[in-house]
């Protein structure tokens, strides 16, 4: 059940516009509202509370329309703000005596229990409280009239790490044990990791993204590395970047962590898949399922697509053959080859002379020709194959950890493995 919905919220200021803000929140969940300072978070919250009157749009809270049912809504929500101002010389007991009269549903026993739970001393004056205790006092007041939705504006702002963690634990307790829904704005991303179920990101007055935390964290990647390694194609997709002493931290949107061709249509991908299964421990179904999750369930239709997807910045890791990657580099793609530490397979092309052939001498001459230095260099330079001659270009694999590829097993298991793969992924994109 929805406890909050915003539809097309707009508010125009001389230097800022809240532009068509729309999102919803399920009851019994915690939503983090994030964005840079000035992005529109506070304006959005104030609009929900009718402290700011939007130019357009609709706000529905607890199934009620804010424009027509404001009084009823206010009795069912609570507002907490970090750094809230009070009469500094007033004692908490005095503030409570004034506040409770505004709420017909005030529960004195519940308030007393929350005061004990939060270790609040009602004899203390506001000026004697830490920032964390001020927030806890606001929570106690908000919960004492049985608020169904708590709207919190930067509640952890200015708190030390220990106090912040305690407060976030309190949010989780209220949500899980009391069934309270919580919407809180913050600029501290660790708060989101600690307790948020969903995240809404506001950028320049617009909702950039809104959804479940797991889905959003899976859809965006944070990468650190040398500044010089970030090519033009990748920079064009960056959401944010920070450079310091030659090291670059970047954040970008990700439509799939790994690019991989469907092994049902790509022989090289089937070879890679079998290499993976032979290198890793565990049952085949579990390994393939975990691998497919990192593809977002979308294998590509061919090996060339893997290189293009990485080179164009649509994917950020590609699993393919060395020669395919080298062809992509030669074509100008800004990519780098990395070999798995678990190992890789090496399957050279072969040439053989048929027993009893009529022109054996010519066949032997042809094989000698294939193995000559000139041809092996040509194969390397034009077809991007490793030389089979020790003296040839890019010869040998001594620098790699090689897996003994079981060709007979790969052939015998092909039908079953491809069927399992289709069941897990559904086939090519």
Outline the secondary-structure elements:
Layout: E1 2-12, E2 17-26, E3 30-34, H1 41-48, E4 56-61, E5 64-65, H2 70-74, E6 77-81, H3 92-99, H4 108-117, H5 131-143, E7 149-153, H6 161-178, E8 181-185, H7 189-195, E9 198-203, E10 206-212, H8 213-219, E11 220-226, H9 232-235, E12 238-244, E13 247-253, E14 258-260, H10 267-279, H11 284-293, H12 303-311, E15 317-319, H13 322-330, H14 360-370, H15 373-383, H16 407-412, H17 414-425
Helix pairs in contact: 4-5, 11-17
Portion in helices: 25-40%
> On the 0-100 scale, what is the average pLDDT?
82
CATH topology of the largest domain: Rossmann fold
Q: What is the β-strand count?
A: 15
Strand order, biggest sheet? 6-7-8-3-9-10
As residue ranges, the low-confidence spans are: none
| Multimeric organization | single chain
CATH homologous superfamily assignment of the largest domain: P-loop containing nucleotide triphosphate hydrolases
Q: Which CATH class of the largest domain?
A: Alpha Beta
Intertermini distance: 34 Å
Shape: elongated
| Name given to the CATH architecture of the largest domain | 3-Layer(aba) Sandwich
**Count of discrete alpha- or pi-helical segments spanning 4 or more residues:** 17
Biggest sheet features: 6 strands, mixed
The whole-angstrom Rg is 31 Å
Q: Specify the structural class.
A: alpha/beta
């Amino acid at each position: 059940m929805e406890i909050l919905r915003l539809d097309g919220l707009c508010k125009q200021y001389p230097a800022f516009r809240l532009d068509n803000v729309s999102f919803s929140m399920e009851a019994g969940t915690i939503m983090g509202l994030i964005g840079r300072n000035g992005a529109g978070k506070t304006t959005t919250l104030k609009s929900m509370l009718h402290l700011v009157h939007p130019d357009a749009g609709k706000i529905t809270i607890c199934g009620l329309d804010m424009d027509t049912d404001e009084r009823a809504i206010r009795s069912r929500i609570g507002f907490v703000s970090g750094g809230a101002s009070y009469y500094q010389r007033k004692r908490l007991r005095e503030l409570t005596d004034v506040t409770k009269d505004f709420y017909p549903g005030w529960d004195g026993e519940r308030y007393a229990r929350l005061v004990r739970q939060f270790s609040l001393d009602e004899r203390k004056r506001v000026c004697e409280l830490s920032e964390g205790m001020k927030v806890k006092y606001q929570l106690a007041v908000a919960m004492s009239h049985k608020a169904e939705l708590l709207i919190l504006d930067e509640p952890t702002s200015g708190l030390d790490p220990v106090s912040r963690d305690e407060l976030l634990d309190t949010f989780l307790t209220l949500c899980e044990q009391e069934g309270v829904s919580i919407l809180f704005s913050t600029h501290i991303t660790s708060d989101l990791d600690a307790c948020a179920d969903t995240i809404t990101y506001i950028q320049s007055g617009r909702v950039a993204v809104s959804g479940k935390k797991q889905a959003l964290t899976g859809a965006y990647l944070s990468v650190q590395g040398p500044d010089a390694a970030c090519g033009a194609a990748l920079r064009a997709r960056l959401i944010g970047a920070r450079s310091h002493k030659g090291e670059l931290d970047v954040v970008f949107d990700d439509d799939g962590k790994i690019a991989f061709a469907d092994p049902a249509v790509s022989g090289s991908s089937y070879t890679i898949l079998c290499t993976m299964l032979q290198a890793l421990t565990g049952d085949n179904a579990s390994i393939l399922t975990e691998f497919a999750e990192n593809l977002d369930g979308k294998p590509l239709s061919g090996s060339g697509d893997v290189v293009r997807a990485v080179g164009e910045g649509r994917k950020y890791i590609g699993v393919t053959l060395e020669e395919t990657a080298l062809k992509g580099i030669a074509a100008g793609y800004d990519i780098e080859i990395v070999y798995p530490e678990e190992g890789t397979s090496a399957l050279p092309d072969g040439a053989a002379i048929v027993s009893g052939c009529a022109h054996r001498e010519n066949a032997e001459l042809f094989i000698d020709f294939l193995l000559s230095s000139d041809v092996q260099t040509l194969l390397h330079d034009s077809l991007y194959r490793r030389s089979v001659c020790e003296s040839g270009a890019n010869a040998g694999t001594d620098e790699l950890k090689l897996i003994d590829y079981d060709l007979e097993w790969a052939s015998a298991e092909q039908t079953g493995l491809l069927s399992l793969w289709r069941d897990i992924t559904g086939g090519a994109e």
